């Protein structure tokens, strides 16, 4: 992941002048419209040579809905095209960065029969993630608090990600009958060994210290220093990522994962999660659990709580992501999300959200209920091209270089 960071910086800024000239029509948005917009879900702070976007839905842990995603898209396009703005910061208001996409809103839309708005939300946030991943100016995300799902999606593809002792990262989508999306199959598949498979299938949480250790974060600092970082960055007049990196390093701390961290179990993790199928992964975990391995027992318990179909779909998604660029991952994930939200293959998404976030009985009835009843055709359908009535996700790859 460290090479992921450095190559992305090199790609963006050595070719900056060429790409800016090609993307003028894509980025042109009236700044007056944005300043006067009454929408309060994303607040804006202006500094000498930077702008800060503040996710402002603290009551929902800054969960991202269509309003947030579309406003961020407008802001980012405008800022990218403004020669007076050198770089962009993204942070969350209050105790969370972002808990992810507002899945309860999606659930309610589906109950109302409003599938179209669900697709528009996915289209918008996936397009935003591609903009972040190909942004022509340095992007700094301050991950001080819960950073999950779509919240990770709009930050990890960017240039810099600052974690703290309050950071909690996870991609818990299999627990609600869904799949890690919002670019997760791109960045999880590039983690050391088979850590990405583990995080994708179990939905397990990791800390800020673990994020910096495995490369999901680029810097680590204590949360008390975040205001000092913002103050120093606010004085910079630059678009040079190396200058911004030096500023972040002034407040950086060396930190190590706790003794019980999953990163200290990477050998066992790789041994179990390197297999080709979910069934083989479970067999390997059971074999290790028989040796009185408490971690394997706990991991098996986590997998038993998830949707069997989601497990198989998610494993295939991570494996395919290893060989795909960011835009290819996002196109495939959009296809998968349309299939999942449509309910044509299974109603697991609605059932998972109901059980965990609406009724909160924590007793989802998965369909199919077991791995044995998940057919290859079901999994294949998630990855199949959409029909002529369901257009594929379009991304501006001709104007913006694909992220590899």
Describe the model.
Pathway: Amino-acid degradation; L-valine degradation. With about 400 residues, the protein is an alpha/beta fold. The protein has a single domain, classed as 2-enoyl-CoA Hydratase, Chain A, domain 1. The chain contains 20 helices and 10 strands. The strands form 2 sheets. A 6-stranded mixed beta sheet has the order 1-2-3-5-7-10, with helices on both faces. Strands 4-6-8-9 form a 4-stranded mixed beta sheet. Helix 5 (about 65-80) packs parallel to helix 7 (about 115-135) and helix 10 (about 195-200) packs antiparallel against helix 17. The termini are close together.
With strands numbered from the N-terminus, the spatial order across the biggest sheet is 1-2-3-5-7-10
Counting DSSP H or I runs of 4 or more residues, the number of helices is: 20
Strand content: 5-15%
The CATH architecture name reads: Alpha-Beta Complex
Distance between the termini: 12 Å
In total, the number of strands is 10
Q: Write down the overall geometry.
A: globular
Structural class: alpha/beta
User: What would CATH call the homologous superfamily?
Assistant: 2-enoyl-CoA Hydratase, Chain A, domain 1
Helical content (DSSP H or I, runs of 4+):
40-55%
Uncertain regions spanning at least 5 consecutive residues = 1-38
- Name the average pLDDT: 89
Structural domains: how many? 1
Main beta sheet:
6 strands, mixed
The CATH class turns out to be: Alpha Beta
**Radius of gyration from CA coordinates:** 21 Å
Q: Encode the helix/strand succession as letters.
A: HHHHEEHEEHHEEHEEHHEHEHHHHHHHHH
What is the CATH T-level topology? 2-enoyl-CoA Hydratase, Chain A, domain 1
